[in-house]
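Subject: BTB domain containing 19

B.,
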Amino acid sequence: METPGLVVHGEAAPFSTALRSLVNNPLYSDVRFVVGQERQEVFAHRCLLACRCNFFQRLLSSEPGPGVPSPVVLSTVPAEAFLAVLEFLYTNSAKLQRHSVAVTFGLGQLQERCVAFIEAHSQETLRTRGFLELSAPALLPLLRSDKLCVDEAELVLAARSWARVGAAVLERPVAEVAAPVVRELRLALLAPAELSALEEQNRREPLIPVEQIVEAWKCHALRRGDAARGTPCRRRRGTLPREHHRFLDLPFK
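Prediction pasted inline below.
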């Protein structure tokens, strides 16, 4: 029986530092990206991106033709966020900032870290441009989180601002843009006066399906958190206390 060879492990820090030096470095780069509305040029290396991320493997699967290849244009991706993703792919670590948590490219581990960062810095993150540029699939795990440090009233306002930006960019109605995510808003957590104000605003600028507001009113009328099927009533970490919450009987986990 052959004796297994000795496995030698080098130091991780110098290896990570060396790879970090290649992030956005034109040296040996064989793929260019034009990123964001500012059209910032970013240099990368095809083999590294393809072996680390299925998104880039699909994106870069075709062989470049002769001559200087055209850059890959990602106009809707903020440059700061894209560079954070590259840093993670190259070094398996990245320093997250409020402006750089918007793009994850299907990287599960990085997505989890981004969500955790936003949960801890909810109010600041909701006010950033990066939040307004989130895709609906990226926004969904945030709105489903119990750990957001923000009150539901503020989250409803943030969702409306997000939908308005998407509606302007996509030239679609606000309610249509909001449809994939708005069901995750926990309207039953709002006090009756807040729910009435939201209902009035919703008449002027539709955002939330009427039946969803009706379900929230049902919870108030019956004073039971389980009165309306499918209406989330769990308090989030940042939910401000309201008198009716004692009837919901669904505390923060």
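The radius of gyration is 23 Å.

T.
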